[in-house]
Design a protein that fits this description.
Elements lengths: L2 E4 L1 E4 L2 E8 L17 H28 L7 H15 L1 H14 L3 H17 L4 H23 L11 H9 L12 E5 L4 H6 L5 E6 L7 H8 L4 E3 L4 H4 L5 E5 L4 E4 L3 H22 L15 E6 L4 H7 L5 E5 L14 H14 L5 E4 L28 H5 L2 H14 L5 E5 L5 H21 L6 E7 L2 H4 L2 H7 L2 E4 L1 H9 L17 H16 L3 E4 L7 H9 L4 E4 L4 H10 L2 H13 L12
Parallel strand pairs: 3-4, 4-5, 5-6, 9-10, 9-16, 10-11, 11-12, 12-13, 13-14, 14-15
Antiparallel strand pairs: 1-8, 2-6, 3-7, 7-8
The chain binds phosphoenolpyruvate (PEP) and magnesium ion.
């Protein structure tokens, strides 16, 4: 039966594919297709894992029998029996084999998928005792996955590019070979680190139950240039494994089990999107200059050093925001040391081939916990807590390690060093002192380093209200509109329940943005916007009219923004932009640009 679920549009385009339901706790399972001639090998790996776990459980049973009866409650032994029974259950083994043989999933992925299928059957059971067996099944599967992690897996074959995947998705739904069937990942939640893990993955689309439009999970989805919908409430409950889905990343809609007519309609839209992309790609080498001759800097936001390649391919003239925290996430407490960080920053600098790279110091906290499965977000208000520069200043030795790594990378090309979430004068002074100390440490060791331009993010209203202080200490400012909106309007950017109140056009937000641009320009200092607003073509004219000349965004958005730049006349836009900022309902004036 066809039905649709409405969520929030986060990453453009249409994806059509079969649903793959993934539980948050199973995100770290490898997802790749195996060649048909490796199927037996995968089944063998599975068999070995099952055998090993059965032996493990038998050993446990034996050790229990050797203990005194008072130390070994009967329940424990009975539980081990249940685990053993579950391991040998046909529904588990036949199901997993199906995913490997018919769909060519690797063994771990097949196991996690079948777990998800059976878990739902358990959820639907009337009997409370049987419902609770779900936890036992999860434990058994976890044991098998742990065993398989210890066994070297075959190297994952190279995955098709997003464009190739989109083309595959546009093909006929039926009759494709298993590897060609496009897949859409559906999950209750995905942490930004989980999302990043799927960067080179097999999925053509993403859907999550939770999340806001500028949550970091959504930001990573956008950077992958894959259609995505977040905040789709109960999608992960309503969608079944293997359902055909349409993800409309433009409208924020998920269509489940579409009829042939609906499928045709969306395939048509998909082709239109492809054509539009091809048309825009012709602008790649066109300089971003407005009709009245203003040169506009279009920069890239990146999460990993390897993203430098897509930044250059997208036509970026530099990196305006390297979110360095992605190097720190999912490391299970082993943070990257100076050398590892230096090599990563250096790779980004070299990857940009002489174009400037703005490295932002780590912004851990809020919806970017160090480790998504450790429940760090248990703080009452993580977005207002120990995040970004506050986290760095709480551990000066760790912070200096990062600063030294960035300074060293600056010996290999132009680097800007940018600090997130500053709000207090004493934070600025403390940070600058640590930068000086890091330089001195490198001097003492005789380690070479390069010059950096120092920048501050303006993303807390308090910072936007004390610009003279910031302009005294920094070479440039970068407006983080994602957080500036969140903190000005007191709207959690990750909470879909208040997403309708998250408004980039709120007069208070516009006044802070306009004031920051004007103050920096008045002092001849650089100013850019690196929040999602900069990559939204609907905002380009307004920002140009307010005097912005530097925009930083996901590489995939650069050409659409460039198109707006090429059509704009900043001299005509300026008076209109002032009217928009002064208006009570700025949105009503947005269509009337000069
Ligand atoms: C912002 O807040 O606008 C920003 C660019 O930083 P992040 O999205 O990483 O918080
Ligand atoms: Mg921010």
């Amino acid at each position: 039966m066809t039905f649709s679920i409405h969520g929030l549009a986060v990453a453009r385009g249409i994806a059509i594919g079969r649903a793959v339901l993934v539980a948050s706790s199973r995100m770290d399972v490898a997802h790749y297709f195996v060649e048909a001639d490796r199927v037996d090998h995968e089944i063998e790996r599975l068999r070995n894992a099952r055998k090993a776990v059965i032996e493990e459980l038998q050993r446990l049973q034996q050790s229990l029998s050797q203990m005194s009866p008072t130390d070994t409650p009967d329940e424990l032994s009975a539980l081990l029996d249940v685990h053993m029974m579950l391991l040998q259950d046909e529904v588990l083994t036949t199901g997993v084999k199906h995913w490997i043989t018919d769909r060519l999933y690797n063994a771990e992925w097949a196991l996690a998928t079948q777990l998800e299928v059976i878990s739902r059957q358990f959820d639907g059971m009337e009997d409370a005792y049987l419902r609770e067996r779900k936890a036992d099944l999860e434990q058994v599967v976890e044991r098998m996955l742990r065993f398989m992690r210890g066994v070297p897996s075959p190297v994952a074959p190279p995955m098709p590019s997003p464009a190739e995947r989109r083309r595959a998705a546009a093909g006929d739904a039926a009759g494709d070979s298993a590897q060609d069937v496009p897949l859409v990942l559906v999950a209750h939640d995905l942490s930004p680190a989980d999302m990043l893990q799927f960067k080179q993955s097999v999925f053509t689309g993403f859907v999550t139950d939770v999340g806001g439009r500028t949550s970091h999970t959504a930001i990573v989805a956008r950077s992958m240039d894959i259609p995505a919908v977040v905040g789709a409430r109960s999608a992960s409950q309503l969608v079944r494994q293997d359902d055909w889905l349409i993800v409309d990343g433009d409208a924020g809609v998920l269509i489940v089990d579409p009829t042939p007519i609906v499928l045709d309609e969306y395939r048509f839209k998909q082709r239109q999107g492809e054509l539009e992309r091809e048309r825009l790609s012709r602008l790649r080498h066109t300089p971003a200059v407005t009709l009245d001759g203003e040169r506009i800097e279009l920069l890239a936001n990146i999460e990993q050093p390897e993203d430098a390649a897509s930044a250059r391919a997208g036509g970026a003239v530099g990196v305006g925001l390297f979110r360095s925290e992605f190097l720190f996430m999912g490391r299970h407490d082993r943070l990257p040391d100076e050398r590892e960080q230096y090599l990563a920053y250096r790779a980004a600098v070299e990857g940009m081939g002489g174009l400037p790279v703005t490295i932002r110091t780590v912004d851990i906290g809020a919806d970017k916990p160090l480790d998504s499965h450790r429940g760090e977000a248990a703080h009452p208000n993580p977005a207002l807590g120990l995040r970004a520069i506050r986290w760095s200043l709480a551990d000066p030795a760790m912070f200096r390690t990062q600063l030294r790594a960035i300074l060293r990378a600056a010996a290999h090309g132009p680097v800007n060093l940018m600090i997130p979430m500053l709000a207090h004068g004493r934070e600025i002074r403390h940070t600058l002192a640590l930068i000086d100390r890091s330089r001195a440490e490198l001097d003492n060791l005789g380690v070479p380093y390069g010059p950096v331009r120092l920048g501050a993010m303006i993303e807390i209203p308090a910072a936007a209200l004390m610009l003279p202080l910031f302009l005294r200490h920094f070479d440039f400012l970068s407006i983080g509109t994602n957080d500036l909106i969140q903190y000005t309007l007191a709207i959690d950017r990750t909470d879909e329940a208040v997403a309708h109140l998250y408004d980039p056009l709120h007069p208070a937000v516009l006044q802070l943005v306009a004031g920051t641009i004007a103050a920096a320009r008045a002092q001849g200092k650089g100013v850019s916007v690196c929040g999602e607003m900069a990559g939204d073509p609907a905002m380009t004219r307004l920002l140009l009219g307010l005097g912005l000349r530097s925009f930083s965004m996901h590489p995939a958005q650069i050409l659409a923004v460039k198109q707006e730049v090429l059509r704009a006349d900043t001299a005509r836009l300026a008076p209109w932009a002032q009217q928009v900022v002064a208006a009570e309902e700025p949105a009503t004036l947005m269509g009337r640009a000069g």
